[in-house]
Amino acid sequence: MGGNADEKEMTGGRRWLLLGMACVCTMLTFLNMGCITAATPDLSGTFVVGTLDVSWSGAACPLGTALSFTVAAYLWARLGLRRSLRTALLLMLAGTLAGLAADHFFIMVLARFLQGTGGGLALVYGTGLVNAALPPERRSPAMGVKLCSIGLASCASPVAGCLLVQYWHWKGLFVIVGAAAALLAVLTTLYVPNTKIPKNGKFDWFSFLALAAGCVCILMVLIYGETDGWTAPGVLCWMYGGFCSLVLAAISCMTHRTPLLDVRVLGNWRFLFGLLASLCNIFCICWVRVGTVQFMRNVMNYEPAGIAWVFLVLVAGFCAGAAIVLPLMQKGRLALRVGMMAGLRGLGSSAFFLSRLDAGRSWLDVAWPLGLLGVGYAFCLNVATPLALRGVEAKSAAASSRTLNTVRYVFISMYVGSVSTVLAHMKTGYRFDMAEQVRDDSPGTVQTLDMWQRHFSETGGTAADIHASVNAMLNHAVALQSQIFSVDAFYLCTVIVGGAGVLFALLCLKSGKERNTAS
After folding, report:
1. Burial of 294 by CB count in 10 Å (0-12 exposed, 13-18 middle, 19+ buried)?
2. Which helix (H) or strand (E) holds 10?
3. CA nearest to 427, candidates 290, 293, 298, 296
4. Segment holding 198, helix H or strand E
5. What is the 3-state secondary structure (H, E, C) of 71-84?
6. 290 Cβ neighbours under 8 A, 6+ residues apart
């Protein structure tokens, strides 16, 4: 069976293969995005870079994913599904090889960006695989399973990352992703039909470049504003550049014949409230995935394998929530709002309890909020997109969906970058005494010490200077950590309660209109 076989003659085995490839592409994208979280201290030591630079490794991947959504339809219309998906997988493979061979942190950031770009394209073309395998009337359950694979991979990525750090090496992530991408590329060449979608005019390159430049500028502001000061001249320049770039991108999108993003849909109140609820969902899961892993490893002094076992509760909670919400999705529009409200309440309460953690808590104090968060995440994930796109006209559904996903992943990139900046300053648990400089699970510790020693030897410092500077850095880090967790807890609860309240108001408003119409 080759890729040129007619879609109508597709056998049952080939249909199952395409559906399986769609789920694997989806899970591979999110595992690649989240696994690196557990290796933040090891990246700093391996490449001998500062804590600010490490933030780029967390932000580059979702930024590449966000930008890839804007070009996915263009490639699909001109290259076809098979060639486009193969290009996406080869980009992911190229990023993997660059990451394995990286001897400089800039190359690592570029590798993560390429992986994110390929992963984002593969995520879009996974929908094409489902469309190619099934007729329209049978696609809804498959799309639900594909959507659940996104959440399952997001929840399982900390588990996989911690196990890799503990029992292998953080570069094992690149080995796994590269091997899977190469295998999928071969299967794509052999079995995926080269179907195309209608062309939609010229690509809006100006908006694409302006959006990319604006995102990079805002990332610079978020990462360096924490330490340099938000009113520092350099930070203000990046802020101004980001604002101008994003404004130019918005103007271009409103005036181009085939806009990159449908920014006018933001005026649709149904879409806007659905988007805000979706961002609340992303805010919670990113905060928990990045913050809790680093907090357990660096403050509670848990081994990565122990963190992995605790996060299995998050995976179990998500599976239980998905089993509840998928049947609920078949019960009409009312279920969307009820599901989103229930999910936001679960996310808000679990995140609040996680924000109260301290070094003296046990793993049970972490596990049960993670289980509750998994249930809430399953509810929000499955109802967010239908809720946002419900009031959008059919002819603009594709453009609105592209706008929705692009905004989501830009938000992920910005939030992960800003949180990583502060979390990277947290107490690492390392002992900077030369007699205690080696830790089995942290191969970068010796390189980090060498970096400090070279720095002070060049500046004429003594061993006492080294210890004094390191202690000052750690004390400042602990202060930043306590500030960010307290501020996050306040804003998190505010956003979650506010988002649930807005949805409840919309539910009451809709119910009132229906009663008036009936009467």
Report:
1. buried
2. none
3. 298
4. none
5. HHHHHHHHHCHHHH
6. 37, 58, 416, 419, 420, 423
pLDDT over 80 at 500, yes or no: no
Q: What gap in Å lies between CA 58 and CA 50, rounded to an integer?
A: 14
Say which residue the tokens 């030897």 belong to: 457
Residue 143: partners with Cβ closer than 8 Å, 6 or more residues away:
127, 130
Q: Residue 420: helix, strand or coil by DSSP?
A: helix
Tokens of residue 112, six digits: 């993560």
372 token code pair = 């509750």
DSSP 428-487: -----SGGG---TT-TTHHHHHHHHHHHHHHTT--HHHHHHHHHHHHHHHHHHHHHHHHH
Place of tokens 């995140």: 351
Element (H, E) at 216: helix 205-228
Rounded to whole angstroms, what are the CA distances from 60 to 114, 261, 424, 477?
Answer: 9, 21, 16, 23
Residue written as token pair 């006209």:
393
Report the C-alpha gap between 431 and 436 in whole angstroms: 6
Among residues 200, 116, 254, which one has the least CA distance to residue 246?
254
pLDDT band with cut points at 50, 70 and 90 for residue 183: very high
d(CA 188, CA 17): 10
pLDDT of 439 above 50: no
pLDDT, tens only, 231-248: 778 888 889 998 999 899
- Going by C-alpha positions, the residue among 443, 421, 420 that lies closest to residue 430 is 443
Separation of alpha carbons 16 and 22, rounded Å:
10
Helix, strand, coil shares of the chain, percent, nearest 5, are 85, 0, 15
Q: What are the CA-CA distances from residue 442 to residues 163, 388, 439, 445 (Å)?
A: 13, 43, 5, 6
Q: Which residue has the tokens 């992911």?
A: 92
Over pLDDT 70: what percentage of the chain?
71
- Closest by CA to 219, choosing from 4, 29, 442, 417, is 417
As given in the structure block, the two tokens for residue 250 are 């918005």
**How many angstroms separate the CA atoms of 92 and 120, rounded?**
10
What's the pTM? Answer: 0.77
Interatomic CA distance for residues 33 and 58, integer angstroms: 8
- CA atoms of 233 and 215, how far apart (whole Å): 19
CB 100, CB 447: distance < 8 Å? no
Query: What does the pLDDT average to over 370-395?
Result: 81
| Phi, psi for residue 432 in degrees, rounded to 5 | -90, 10
Highest average pLDDT, of 24-38, 39-53, 93-107, 386-400, comes from: 93-107
